[in-house]
Structures are given as C-alpha cells and as structure tokens.
Design goal:
Elements lengths: L2 H14 L9 E2 H8 L3 H13 L3 E3 L4 E4 L30 H4 L13 E3 L9 E7 L5 H16 L4 E8 L4 H13 L4 E4 L7 H12 L4 E4 L11 E4 L2 H15 L4 E7 L5 H14 L5 E8 L4 H15 L5 E4 L2 H14 L5 E3 L4 H10 L3 E4 L5 H13 L3 E3 L1 E3 L4 E3 L12 E2 H4 L30
Parallel strand pairs: 5-6, 5-7, 7-8, 8-9, 9-16, 10-11, 10-12, 12-13, 13-14, 17-18
Antiparallel strand pairs: 1-3, 2-3, 4-15, 14-17
C-alpha cells in the first residue's frame, strides 16, 4: 500500500472513531480541528465517506455514522437478559465474552431482533394497555401519542382496554390480571415501579403462558418477560445533562439533584448516569439527591427545603425533567436575584421560563412520541414480524444560544424549540399528536 493511501486510511479510521457511544452528530469543522486535518484534505474525505454511506448528514451542519458504519457505531442498547418469548435471531458477530460482559450499557452491534411468528393473529385484535399513571403532563402526552396511533390503526384494533395504576404497583398488578381476564391478545405496559417483585413475577408467568408483552417508557425488573421495550436513552439524558452542568460551571460548584419518581426506572438510570459523570469532576460537590414525583410542586418543595437547610442557593440544579424543573426555577425567581443553572426539558413552560429569564439550561426531551411507536410495535408483534428487542426513540439536545459547552452542542435552539402559542404544560416531544385536540384521544377505559 502506498504511503498516501495508508495515510488516508488512518485519517478515515480516525474520523469514524471520533464519534461517541451514542453516535451523537458532530460538526464537520469540529472533527477536523480535533484530528488536526486541513480543510482541503478533511472535507474531501468527509465528502467521500458521505457519498458511500459511512457517514450521513444530520441537522445544523452535523454528520454522524451512517448505515455502512453500523458495526462501528455505538448504538444505544441496554444489556438484555435472556428473552423468554420467541427465538432470537442470532448475531454471529457476538462473542461469548461479549455476552458475558456484566452491566453492558452500550453495544456496538446491531439491535438484537426477536422473531414473533408465534404471536401472529389475524386482525382485528384486542390490546390491553396498563399505564403506570397519568399523574403528570408527560404521561398524559404519551397517552395522547399512543391514542393518536390507535386512531390511525383503527382497522387493525377491535378494542383497546386502558387502565391507570396511579403509580401504585399493587393496583397495577390487579389491573393487569383484569386485562388478561378480558382476553387480550397483547399486553402493553408502563411499569409503576421497577422494584415491585410480585408484578415482575406475574409478567414472567404471563410470558411463559404465551402472552406477548411490550413495555413502553418504564420496564419491569425482569426484562426477560418482554418481547420488546420502547424507550429513549435515560443514560444519555443523565450523562449529557450532567456533563453540560459540570462544564458550564467550569468543573467547580455545588449541585442539587432533583430526580423524578423514586422506584421508576427512568429516574434511577438518569440519576446513576449523572452521578457517574459528576464523580469525574473533583470540584463538583453533589450536596443532595431529592425525589420530586415529577411534579412542579415537588420541585418547588425540594428547593424550599434545601434552602432552609443550607441557607445558600447552589451553583446548579440538575433536574432529570422540566416537570419538576419548572417548580425549581419558579422558586428561585420568587426569591429575586440570579437563578442557578438548570437542566431538564420536556414541558413547554420550562423552556418559556428559561428563555424569558435567561436562565442557563440544557434540555433533553424524553420523547412522548414513544407511545405511538409502542402501539405500532405491538401491531407488528401481532403480525408475526421480526422486531427489535429494544427500540430507542431519538433524544435531541436543546440549548439556548450561547449556552453550548466544549462537549455539549445543540441539536436545536431553545428559542426556536419553545412553542409560545401552546399551553404551558404542552409536552413538545409527542409528535403529530401535539397539536391535536386532547378530547379526540380517549380510548375506551376498562372497568
């Protein structure tokens, strides 16, 4: 191989290796600067990689790994437990050593697939949805998204039975049994608490009996009972938001952490990822971790309590969602003076407050549109298709202009993402259902 060819191969390898574990889109100039390439050489290689599918274009002039580079991309994927329902489609590239790796968070292989031929049923079908709750705007938005998809697919669905567990796992267990007694063909579920063993055990028994189960948003403790899980990367939300906070504070400062609902898997995973990042910055002190139930009042109460205990505002408030972030920001605004840097998106009012009051913030919206995707997937299962074992709906980074840090760049600007004509509690990630009248999305509730 000629020296020039060898050099170009090394440059191409360096470009492909420059993407992170989630294949986050990057600015082309940022890549070339980091790798020390000239514009003429670097952009020529980038164009060639784009033309051949090794890279693909994203928005805001960014690129990411393309379909030809999937073996190199670190696609978001939670280490799976053995799956009970249906045989797995084997991936010959996966080694026994790789399979034995404990607590694997990211897997560079393609998403593992499940053959659901055993569940094939002639439509129309009966689907039961056991919802953890409708206790906050995000959960109601997710329900609207699912109901929007149900309206589109109404010819395939004879009946959809929906229950609301009110965040009570014991109630959810009773409701699941009621749904099964009504002869459903598939159970779609969002778990009230990942730590509730009786519910997890019941789902495992139902899976053994041949009932297909799809989880959305929150999974059970025993993942092997699931055919598939539709979610978004809680690890990415926790990690990126904490990294932004640490970098925005220059690696030094006092941080309060306001998590969502204790026992809910998204809250636990985001918190764990954020704490891991903060631990890498010796100058960052995490003074407190509080639970807020993902409510505005919960956020306000936590801040009031911590102010009473410490007598001093922190440098930053890490929130895993704007649902409680709104309460925190409003509490500080009520005191006068500067509002600490915040994290947390999802709800329209969080963006309104931070943009209007110029509060430094980063947001990664947890996509409520996963409700629609979960119902689509459920219908694919009942059609006997081969489906992914895990589906992650993309999460974008939203920042006000001027708030980017060395590692965290905006996929969208908060000033453009906020919707001034929509209600304060609008969830901006629920897809086409966002601007539909809420009254049109009311599936039949089970007894």
């Amino acid at each position: 191989m000629a020296q020039d060819d060898r050099t170009n191969m090394q440059r191409i390898a360096a470009i492909l290796k420059s993407f992170d574990a989630e294949n986050t889109p990057r600015r082309t100039q940022e890549i070339l600067t980091e790798l020390g390439m000239s514009r003429s050489t670097g952009f020529g290689l980038l164009r060639a990689l784009l033309a051949r599918g090794w890279l693909e274009r994203s928005d805001h002039g960014r690129v990411r790994l393309g379909p030809q580079a999937r073996d190199l991309a670190h696609a978001a994927f939670e280490a799976p437990a053995p799956t009970r329902p249906g045989p797995m489609v084997a991936d010959p590239r996966r080694s026994p050593e790789r399979e034995a790796t404990p607590e694997l968070e990211w897997d560079p292989a393609l998403v593992r697939m499940v053959d659901t031929g055993r569940y094939r049923k002639q439509p129309p079908c009966r689907i039961g949805f056991s919802n953890a709750s409708t206790s906050n705007p995000w959960r109601r938005a997710m329900m609207q998204s699912l109901s929007y998809a149900r309206k589109i697919a109404q010819a395939q669905i004879a009946e959809m039975l929906v229950t609301d567990a009110e965040d009570d796992p014991d109630l959810q267990l009773t409701q699941v049994n009621d749904l099964v007694a009504q002869g459903i063909d598939l159970l779609l579920i969002s778990i009230a608490s990942v730590n509730h063993d009786p519910l997890s055990d019941r789902l495992a028994a139902l899976a053994d009996d041949g009932l297909p189960i799809v989880a959305v948003d929150r999974r059970p403790k025993d993942r092997s009972s699931l055919v598939s899980f539709v979610t978004a990367s809680d690890h990415r939300i926790g990690r990126v938001s904490a990294l932004w906070m640490a970098e925005h504070l220059g690696g030094r400062g006092r941080v309060w952490m306001l998590s969502g609902l204790e026992g809910a898997s998204p809250a636990l995973r985001r918190q764990q990822a954020a704490l891991s990042v903060f631990s890498e910055f010796p100058g960052i002190t995490v003074e407190n971790v509080s639970y807020t139930d993902w409510t505005e009042q919960g956020g306000a109460d936590a801040v009031a309590r911590l102010l009473g205990e410490t007598g001093q505002a922190p440098d930053g408030v890490w929130c895993d969602s704007g649902l409680q972030g709104v309460g925190s920001v409003r509490r500080f605004l009520g005191m006068g003076g500067a509002v600490p840097a915040h994290t947390g998106g999802d709800v329209n009012e969080m963006y309104r407050l931070c943009v209007q009051e110029r509060v430094p913030m980063v947001a990664l919206d947890y996509p409520a549109s996963m409700g629609a995707r979960a119902l689509e997937l459920s219908l694919e299962v009942l059609a006997g298709s081969i489906v992914p074992q895990r589906i992650e709906v993309p999460v974008q980074i939203v920042l006000p202009r001027g708030c980017e840090t060395a590692s965290v760049k905006a996929d969208a600007w908060a000033e453009l993402h906020v919707q001034w004509d929509l209600p304060a509690d609008a969830i901006l990630s629920q897809g086409p259902a966002l601007r539909e009248p809420q009254s049109s999305f009311r599936p039949r509730m089970s007894a």
